[in-house]
Amino acid sequence: MLDEAKDRHARFQQKLADAGIEVALITDEASIGYLAGFWGYLSVEFGRPTALVVRPDAAPVVVTPLMESEMVGAMTWVEDIVTWEDMGNTHWVHVLPTVLGDASRVAVEKGTLPAPLRNWFDDQMPGTELTDVSPILGAMRMIKSPAEIEVMRQAGQIAGAMMGAAHGALAADVPEYEAALAVIDAGTRKAAGFLTDRGWEAFVSPMIQGLQIMQSGSDTSMVHRRASVKRLAPGDPVYFCFCNMAQFKLYKLGFDRMFFIEHASDDAIRVQQAAIDAQQAAIAAIRPGVTAESVAEAANEVYRARGYETGYRTGRSIGMSYLEAPELKAGDRTVLQPGMTFAVDGGISLDGQCGGRIGDSVVVTETGCDYLTDYPREILYSGQLP
Fold first, then answer.
1. pLDDT digit string, tens, across residues 360-386
2. What are phi and psi of 364, to 5 degrees?
């Protein structure tokens, strides 16, 4: 993975040169991971930024808190690591200007630039013009390499183990949190099987983290409700969304399933089957040369035929960030290419009633697409494991 990151950095340097960009300040965790190979586990900075400084014609520099520098050095191919401390002349507000030099224009990721850095530029560097480098990185990250896709396939296997554990934990009178715990345990054990304790991988944790997205009964229409102490009842629909948990080595997938406890009403089955059929229509439409919005329209045709309307996008590009470009929705005319990866959803919400939900991740191939996630795409019940 470090060799891939180093190659991406070289291509990024060339793109900076082509765009006439003198220096880029990269601060988004996913972008740093993409170019330098390391990332943090907290995913928050607490006002303590780490940055990657890239120039077209010079070696990159990592600027990071002193306490993080040992792990950073073990996880990155970048040799020049400049550290800062929490006070005095070694604070980042004094260290960062020495790394940036006297550049009058700095390319940043405007949408994710941390507030402390944004304020610092405004207060201390008011004459510096900030341009947006996000489009360059975004275009690079649209097409995944074979090595990236292999990691995402492993993430899919981890997600499948999580979903199987969720399914197996469902029964009447079982509290929601028990299924959530089963998900964490199964995913962690599956992820551990892909890792070694040597080199870069020694710093990749197998632990499945993230607050479980799960809801049951009439709460399934809430979409992002969390697992609670609520007990499941016969006839309940139960929805699992792993979009903030199905990830491995920083690569994130989308993966959703709906289950029913023992049995389901005719209305619930009708709604869920419509969501499944819409998702399958969208996936069948994915191939090189079609537009992103045409894939969404394939799903919308199914919704309309069944008498439903949906405000959801049909899918989103996935990778190191939770949301990348393009999106499968009306108005996005991006032409699909091999190597693009998407989370493709079927979703219907009926307020205060059962909703319909399903989601998978796929990769665009030369002739269509392949699944990165796998679990039965049908009406699913507790006690009936595949």
1. 999 999 999 999 999 999 999 999 998
2. -75, 130
